[in-house]
Write a structure and sequence with these properties.
This protein is of the alpha/beta class and 265 residues long. The protein folds into 2 domains: 123 residues, Udp-n-acetylmuramoylalanyl-d-glutamate--2,6- Diaminopimelate Ligase, Chain: A, domain 1, CATH 3.40.1390.30; 115 residues, NIF3 (NGG1p interacting factor 3)-like (Udp-n-acetylmuramoylalanyl-d-glutamate--2,6- Diaminopimelate Ligase, Chain: A, domain 1, 3-Layer(aba) Sandwich), CATH 3.40.1390. The chain contains 10 helices and 11 strands. Helix 2 runs parallel beside helix 3. The N and C termini lie far apart (53 Å).
Length: 265
């Protein structure tokens, strides 16, 4: 029996349940039919026109992304607009598109855990937790204390980025770090109430840096893309392992050609 889109969705729901998604989010099925057969899955961060075009060209049947293709309610589908073109291309090539967004951020072993583990944190716990769930962000300990400057270099190497933005005293001693994938300003108050000396996230603001500096803490802004792109290989590996366990003949491809939309000059 063919593996279907619905079968893959059930596998994803086992480790990133839809009920963990925020109400404002649009995780889940974006385009296509749950009944479509799946022989090849692509995993990417963004369902950009370039990614969808490449997936169609390579005859993928399902594209799993972190960011949703359709985020806000649509009033129209303009086939001359990039979003409309992407939807049309996906439907014409029978490419289903599925997003695991805030549910993948929050879940145990999800994106925030991936980020914490990638920079070497141990004893990882939620930074902000409600109702005993998996919570938001993560906080953990370094194997050994280091300076803020050295930590920034460790992070650059771990995430293969050339530049990060750092706020705070570069000689600050750091033993505990809080992280949040994506845009992390919303969890800054939780960081300041925690015992962590440094906060690592993306899309952090000028006034965030002032607040952190005034609290004699440190902050490392790694950018939105770098904080989340790590999910591509990790999720592809997870799906491959789960499908192999089930004996499903499905190829999983981690799309490796996405780039940060920002260029530092």
């Amino acid at each position: 029996m063919d593996t279907t889109v619905a079968d893959i969705i059930r596998i994803i729901d086992l480790f990133a349940p839809q009920e963990l998604s925020e109400e404002w989010d649009n995780s889940g099925m974006q385009v296509g039919s749950r009944s479509w057969p799946v022989k090849k899955i692509w995993v990417a961060l963004d369902p950009s026109p370039e990614v969808i075009q490449a997936a169609c060209k390579q005859k993928a049947n399902l594209l799993v992304t972190h960011h949703p293709l359709i985020f806000r309610p649509l009033k129209s589908i303009d086939l001359n607009h990039p979003l409309g073109q992407s939807i049309r291309m996906a439907v014409e090539h029978r490419l289903a598109v599925f997003a695991a967004h805030t549910n993948l951020d929050r879940t145990h072993s999800g994106l925030n855990d991936m980020l914490a583990e990638r920079i070497g944190l141990k004893n990882i716990a939620p930074l902000h937790q409600e109702d005993g769930g998996p919570g938001y962000g993560r906080i953990g300990d370094l194997a050994r204390s280091t300076s803020l400057h050295s930590l920034a270099e460790i992070v650059k190497k771990a995430l293969t980025v050339d530049h990060v933005r750092v706020a705070g005293d570069l000689t600050l001693s750091v033993s505990s770090v809080a992280v949040c994938s994506g845009s992390g300003s919303g969890l800054l108050p939780d960081f300041l109430l925690s015992d962590a000396q440094v906060y690592l996230s993306g899309d952090l603001r000028y006034h965030d840096a002032l607040d952190v500096r005034d609290a004699h803490r440190g902050m490392i802004d790694i950018g939105h893309f770098a904080s989340e792109h790590i999910m591509v290989n990790a999720l592809a590996g997870r799906l491959t392992a789960d499908l192999d366990t089930l004996g499903a003949a499905v190829d999983v491809v981690a799309y490796e050609h996405e780039k940060d939309p920002f260029t530092i000059l």
